[in-house]
Specification:
Helix 1 packs parallel to helix 6, helix 4 runs antiparallel to helix 6 and helix 8 packs antiparallel against helix 9. Strand 3 and strand 4 form a beta hairpin. The protein is α+β, with helices and mostly antiparallel strands. Strands 1, 2, 5, 8, 9, 11, 13, 16 and 17 form a 9-stranded mixed beta sheet that branches. An 8-stranded mixed beta sheet has the order 7-6-10-4-3-12-15-14. The protein has 9 helices and 17 strands.
Length: about 425
């Protein structure tokens, strides 16, 4: 009889054990489904971060358009016209072509004063600059090109200077060329490489005698975000100084020398004509426009705070935090032989998603680092307190608090790293 009872108990325990293991498998599948379900609010939060980033860009563009856009300075250079005779059906037709002559030397000295303008929550960096452009023109390159100097209309040459945004001009611009002073007129009159800028008509007949014509231009120019230069000189040198401590050097050429201090920076560039893909004399300059534009260089006055990019990077790790947190809850459930409902998993997951909404909201007001600390502290307390309430045991709740604290600290370190982010992330996993 006793043997019969023992066999009956064993047969009863086997199905119960199988059922228990089967229920754990079902729970794991439910948890996996909840993780996938929680990607929906995370997708919505990522869209919100992107939308707020666009709002920031629109605010920056609106302020920039009212102040002045980022400036690119091209010039000065000369546009000299010459007649071309063609025969068509035994009829001779004369058309006027343009020849572009770039300067032998182009030396630019610039002093920039930056300031921050605000539009709602967003900051826009703008500047006022005082630029001095010096150098000289000569007919040396024309002679090398074997161009018939007698056909060139030196007496109606156009001195051209291209700017990106004419609203940035603060004072009248003039050029001292040899012993003469010429006042620039608005527009290019179809004489320039680009259509935006200023020009002056001058008699440059002295170039026929292979005489060098020194020039000097002083410009007071406003702009925003960045300032760029085109190296049109046979030798181009640019010296810039500004009261900005986080410059980002952009374009085709980095400065030869730079000095960045706590309050300002200075930088010097030198570019030779051999460093670019166009010559000092060009006739079909429309074919060289892309090469000319692509040779620009300069500095971007970068605002160091980029909370939207950092918030988006932190959101990419959401699935890692949710998976590890659910894993700890599941093992806590097994070790303490308690049952935690799937709805409670879902509530914990939503609390983890709420972290990114808090992070985005706080970062717009107090900056990313303080916002990350505050948002993670609130989330850790929320999840830890909830786990203490449903399990009613301090140890599992403290384990959850410790795990989440380590996870958020680890993600924060990954966000701060740039060069070693992938390596640190792989080692952490």
């Amino acid at each position: 009889m006793d043997n019969f009872n023992e066999e009956l108990n064993e047969q009863t325990q086997q199905p119960m054990g199988c059922l228990h293991r089967f229920s754990k498998t079902i729970k794991i599948l439910i948890i996996g489904g909840l993780v996938i379900l929680l990607m929906i609010p995370m997708f919505m939060i990522e869209n919100l971060i992107t939308e707020r980033g666009y709002t920031q860009e629109n605010a920056i563009n609106e302020v920039s358009e009212k102040w002045s856009l980022a400036q690119t300075i091209s010039g000065p250079y000369l546009n000299i016209q010459y007649p071309v005779t063609t025969e068509n059906n035994e009829k001779k037709e004369v058309s006027i072509k343009d020849l572009i002559l770039f300067p032998d030397e182009l030396l630019i000295d610039g002093q920039l004063k930056t300031e921050i303008l605000k539009r709602s929550l967003y900051e826009v960096n703008v500047y006022q600059s005082e630029l001095t452009l010096k150098g000289s023109f000569s007919s040396e390159e024309l002679i090398k090109s074997r161009i018939d100097m007698n056909n060139l209309k030196f007496d109606q040459a156009a001195i051209c200077l291209n700017l990106t945004d004419m609203r940035g001009i603060s004072e009248q611009i003039s050029i001292t060329l040899d012993d003469s002073v010429y006042i620039f007129e608005p527009g290019m009159d179809n004489r320039g490489i680009n259509n935006t800028g200023v020009h002056a008509i001058a008699d440059l007949s002295a170039l026929k005698t292979d005489k060098k014509l020194p020039y000097e231009i002083k410009i007071k120019l406003k702009g925003s975000q960045s300032i760029n230069f085109i190296p049109l000189g046979k030798t181009t040198q640019v010296n810039l100084k500004a009261n900005w401590n986080t410059p980002s050097f952009i374009g085709n050429y980095l400065p030869n020398n730079r000095d960045i201090t706590e309050n300002n920076f200075s930088a010097q560039w030198q570019v030779l004509n051999l460093n670019r893909n166009y010559s000092q004399v060009t006739i079909n300059y429309n074919q060289n426009i892309k090469d000319i534009e692509n040779s620009s260089f300069g500095v971007n006055f970068k605002i160091a705070v980029e909370q939207y990019q950092q918030s988006m990077r932190s959101a990419k790790y959401a699935i890692l935090i949710i998976l590890l947190t659910f894993g700890v809850i599941f093992f806590t459930e097994i070790m303490n032989k308690t049952r935690i409902h799937a709805l409670q998993y879902l509530l914990v997951g939503l609390a983890l998603c709420l972290f990114y909404s808090l992070l985005l909201s706080f970062s717009e007001h107090i900056g990313f680092n303080p916002a990350y600390l505050l948002s993670s502290a609130l989330t850790v307390l929320l999840v830890g307190g909830y786990m203490l309430g449903i399990i009613r045991k301090k140890k599992p709740a403290f384990i959850m608090v410790g795990l989440l604290s380590i996870l958020y600290l680890y993600i924060f370190v990954l966000i701060q790293l740039e060069t070693f982010a992938l390596l640190a992330g792989s080692l952490g996993l």
